[in-house]
Amino acid sequence: MKNIYLMTLLSVLLFSCSSDDSSPSIENMTQLPTIESVSTTTATAGDVITITGKNFDSNTTYVVKFNEVEGTVTEVTPTFLKAQVPENATSGDITLTSNGETIVVGSIQITPPTPTTASRLFGYIANDKIVELNIETGEEINTLITIGQDYFSDVTFSKSTNEIIGHLPSQTNMNDEIFYKINVATGEATQKEYSGYERLIATNTGKLYGYVAYDKIVELNIQTGEEISTLATIGPDYFKDIVYSESTNEIIGQISVFDDMSNAYMFTYYRINADTGEITTKAYTGYESLIITDSGKLYGYVAYDKIVELDIETGEELSTLATIGQDYFSDVVYSENTNEIIGQVSTFDGNSNSYTYYRINATTGEITTKAYAGYEHLIIKND
């Protein structure tokens, strides 16, 4: 009888040991998914990305983080996982965590959301009219206003008055110009004779400035074009490529002077405080045109080559945004709502010019092009 009890006890012990050695734990049976791809490398808060791979398990808890900020997993299948980018996400690595293990599955560039209001783009057909263009394609939508045969120049857009502002030559006084304003909601124009300026600069707060060539910057009455006061005296060298920086409240431009010793042009970067008129200058490389954003980014066009980002304080080159090539890039504007630098390239085939519409993503540098009619000026309305 004792032997029977002993044999039974040994059998139980042997079975228990065998079970412990051969039965894998639940933890050992679970494996991390094999990642094949991530659906995108750029996204905006609220976007849903897809991580594709193998061995995803809908019964497993997964945590997806965007540069250490946790997103929301919205769907899990055996071959993919979807996650929503959180509101406070920043650019960096995308990580996937399950059962205490974390792997990097890709990287993401977080772009600012597109505002609900859209930028509007207009083109000037020389000695004729202003038309509205499709900002995606450059195609003509409709005619805003027919101006006539006189040339419309020094064009700017006033956000505060919702007007395109420029001038026409006066028919009665050779020394004057016609101050010409066009309401973009109605197409209605108002005009008044005024002194005329080399360049007009409108701010988002409703101020208007004019450049008196080889002399000074003056503030103008935005309703009448009449001169209010002198902001800053620049001097006899020509001030050009003028933009207004909303973020620093400065008028920014450049002066080029030919140096006989080096047989080359020397450039000076100018910043003028729009409240005090204080001028800050610095020698710098010089660019064909300057492009500014409301958020304070400054870009320069290197003629027949590329667009570069510049330090707004010093004018120093930070990085290349996009290489355009040997054709000349002109009539450049910045669309705040689509975060794009927009312009055109014209190519002469021996008989006539053909035009290409260019859109450059200001975050990624990606270029989108399309053949289009071409215009004398491009004018952007940023809301």
From TrEMBL:
Leader sequence segment: 1-21
- The answer to whether keyword Metal-binding applies is no
Q: Which InterPro entries match?
A: Ig-like_fold (IPR013783), Ig_E-set (IPR014756), IPT_dom (IPR002909), Quinoprotein_ADH-like_sf (IPR011047)
Residue ranges of every copy of the IPT/TIG domain listed in the record: 33-101
Keywords in alphabetical order, please. Signal
| Annotated protein name in UniProt | IPT/TIG domain-containing protein
**Lineage from the top down?**
Bacteria, Pseudomonadati, Bacteroidota, Flavobacteriia, Flavobacteriales
